[in-house]
């Protein structure tokens, strides 16, 4: 086969793989559809839902925006003044009663929670009152031996009820465990997120991010960004409401890659020049990773400027060189790895990608296809051509089913380019040119995934079987 034919075959294959990769995105779309329908229903006060197409959904976001305009200014004021309560993630129970909108799924969740508590209390009471019940005899055959004939019918009923209760209890505990353990904040400012329900996460309001998400909902990139559901005010704080990208995944395996050749804004350079504030927390983080990193003066002061810290982070990781870095990974068993500060070389990164995907070819291919599709969407995107994308991440998510997808998140430092500046996104940054190097990072990741696919093709152990030892009902 000549190389052109081979190329064509590769492209065809990629398209097929892309379908696979998108199937998750589409499922996300299905979820979005459902969620939007709930919002419409709440607004119209109607129970009957109609499926809505993409255009209608976008319109809905705009309607929601109109309704929320009154509180937006207040949120922006709060953003300036509010001191964020560190570690403010609250439990599901504490969040109860606090949501502005409670949809059917939320009501069902609440009902299940109450049932779990009531079954649990009943069982504990029963268990302490009766020694025989402590072993939870579930077999009716065993029960037959224990009960006399006269009591048999009632005993059977009791036993069967107990059996059902126990099974329901186990199912609910599994459900409860899944709900509580499935969400993780892998990177970023801890305490920035709150648990929510109905496939939504709440993130601390930022005017910059709010503006980006609004624009993105009708951009060519919309299928690569979590659905934006506007913002809410809660207990005096404002949150943006985002589609929970982990929702619907069973034991998700996730990776956060911060994109671009730099993670600081050009204005942060000017700020550091005019008013160089020493940060002792950043100095501590720096010496923990590399005691020789601070200069003699910084050691003496026990502090570094934020700019100096950020530049060191970019240089000592793969950011400056390859245009992205790994911020964190959560494995299938829930363990979280965040120590990638000095993961810098292509070899280290590829090894990490192979471990993260457990060398599963279908996962590696789905990720690569999704990145190729993202590249296309970025080419068409009006948003991308007019914004400097700094500190934004790609969130990779897969699980033991066939789902694997990549999403753009975190637009807190993404700003419109200054008048007259046109970005290429794939050329080196020099101060004043505002280039972010986003496409350099995307190309590096795509290349590394390609290499990983080659490596895994030789040594793949179980790509067709789903790879990970993960069953739907094993939790
Ligand atoms: N829509 C989402 N669905 C599921 N998880 C999310 C979503 N958005 C963010 N996360 C999780 O939260 C983490 C941090 O997200 P994000 O980067 O937006 O936070 P941040 O505090 O703004 O970060 P930074 O401090 O780098 O600006 C991600 O790594 C991911 O684990
Ligand atoms: O990842 P690390 O090494 O912990 O360092 C943090 C990271 O660079 C964040 O991007 C940055 O927040 P911004 O991007 O929002 O500036 C934060 O600054 P901060 O401490 O001033 O919030 C740093 O501490």
Overview of the molecule:
It is a single chain. The protein is α+β, with helices and mostly antiparallel strands and 475 residues long. Among the domains are: 32 residues; 165 residues, D-amino Acid Aminotransferase, Chain A, domain 1 (2-Layer Sandwich). It contains 16 helices and 11 strands. A 5-stranded antiparallel beta sheet has the order 7-6-5-9-10. Strands 1-2-4-3 form a 4-stranded antiparallel beta sheet. Strand 1 and strand 2 form a beta hairpin. Helix 1 crosses helix 14, helix 4 packs across helix 6 and helix 14 packs antiparallel against helix 16. It is globular. D-MYO-inositol-1,4,5-triphosphate (I3P) binds next to helix 11.
What structural class do the secondary elements suggest?
A: alpha+beta
Mean pLDDT: 73
Small-molecule binders here are: adenosine-5'-triphosphate, D-MYO-inositol-1,4,5-triphosphate
Order of helices and strands: HHHHHHEEHEEEHHHHHEEHHHEEEEH
Classify the fold: give the CATH topology of the domain at 249-261 and 323-474. D-amino Acid Aminotransferase, Chain A, domain 1
Strand order of the largest sheet: 7-6-5-9-10
Oligomer: single chain
Provide the CATH top-level class of the domain at 249-261 and 323-474. Answer: Alpha Beta
Q: What is the number of helices?
A: 16
Low-confidence stretches: 1-63, 82-103, 119-149, 171-180, 460-475
The CATH homologous superfamily of the domain at 249-261 and 323-474 is named Inositol polyphosphate kinase
The geometry reads as globular
Q: What is the percent of helical residues? A: 40-55%
Strand percentage: 5-15%
Biggest sheet layout: 5 strands, antiparallel
The total strand number stands at 11
CATH architecture descriptor name of the domain at 249-261 and 323-474: 2-Layer Sandwich
Beginning-to-end CA distance, first to last residue: 48 Å
Pfam families: IPK
Keywords: ATP-binding, Kinase, Nucleotide-binding, Transferase
Enzyme class: transferase
Organism: Denticeps clupeoides (denticle herring)
């Amino acid at each position: 086969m000549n190389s052109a034919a081979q190329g064509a075959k590769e492209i065809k294959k990629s398209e097929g793989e892309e379908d696979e990769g998108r199937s998750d995105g589409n499922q996300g779309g299905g979820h979005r559809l459902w969620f939007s329908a709930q919002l419409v229903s709440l607004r119209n006060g109607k129970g009957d839902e109609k499926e809505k197409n993409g255009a209608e959904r976008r319109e809905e976001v705009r309607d929601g925006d109109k309704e929320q305009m009154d509180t937006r200014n207040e949120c922006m004021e709060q953003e300036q003044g509010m001191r964020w309560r560190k570690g403010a993630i609250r439990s599901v129970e504490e969040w109860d009663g606090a949501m502005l909108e409670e949809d059917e799924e939320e009501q069902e969740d609440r009902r299940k929670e109450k049932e779990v508590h009531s079954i649990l209390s009943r069982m504990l009471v029963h268990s302490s009152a009766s020694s025989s019940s402590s072993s939870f005899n579930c077999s009716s055959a065993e029960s037959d031996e224990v009960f006399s004939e006269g009591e048999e019918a009632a005993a059977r009923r009791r036993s069967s009820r107990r059996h059902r209760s126990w099974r329901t209890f186990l199912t609910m505990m599994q459900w409860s465990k899944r709900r509580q353990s499935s969400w993780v904040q892998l990177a970023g400012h801890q305490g920035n997120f709150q648990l929510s329900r109905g496939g939504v996460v709440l993130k601390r309001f930022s005017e910059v991010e709010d503006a980006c998400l609004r624009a993105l909902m009708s951009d060519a990139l919309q299928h690569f960004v979590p659905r934006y559901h506007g913002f809410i005010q809660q207990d005096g704080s404002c949150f943006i409401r985002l589609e929970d990208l982990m929702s619907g995944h069973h034991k998700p395996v996730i990776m956060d890659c911060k994109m671009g050749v730099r993670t600081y804004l050009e204005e942060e350079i000017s700020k550091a020049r005019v008013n160089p504030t020493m940060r002792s927390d950043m100095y501590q983080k720096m010496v923990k990773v590399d005691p020789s990193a601070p200069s003699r003066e910084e050691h003496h002061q026990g502090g570094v400027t934020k700019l100096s810290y950020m530049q060191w982070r970019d240089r000592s990781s793969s950011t400056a060189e390859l245009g992205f870095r790994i911020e964190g990974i959560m494995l299938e068993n829930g363990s979280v790895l965040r120590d990638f500060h000095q993961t810098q070389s292509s070899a280290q990164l590829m090894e990490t990608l192979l471990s993260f995907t457990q060398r599963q070819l279908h996962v590696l291919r789905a990720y690569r296809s999704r990145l190729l599709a993202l590249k296309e969407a970025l080419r068409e995107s009006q948003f991308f051509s007019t914004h400097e994308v700094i500190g934004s991440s790609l969130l990779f998510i897969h699980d033991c089913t066939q789902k694997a997808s990549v999403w753009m998140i975190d637009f807190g430092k993404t700003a419109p380019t200054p008048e007259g500046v046109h970005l290429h996104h794939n050329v080196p940054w020099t101060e004043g040119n505002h280039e972010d190097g986003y496409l350099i990072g995307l190309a590096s990741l795509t290349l590394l995934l390609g290499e990983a696919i080659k490596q895994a093709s030789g040594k793949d152990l179980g790509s067709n079987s789903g790879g990970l030892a993960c069953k739907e009902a094993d939790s």
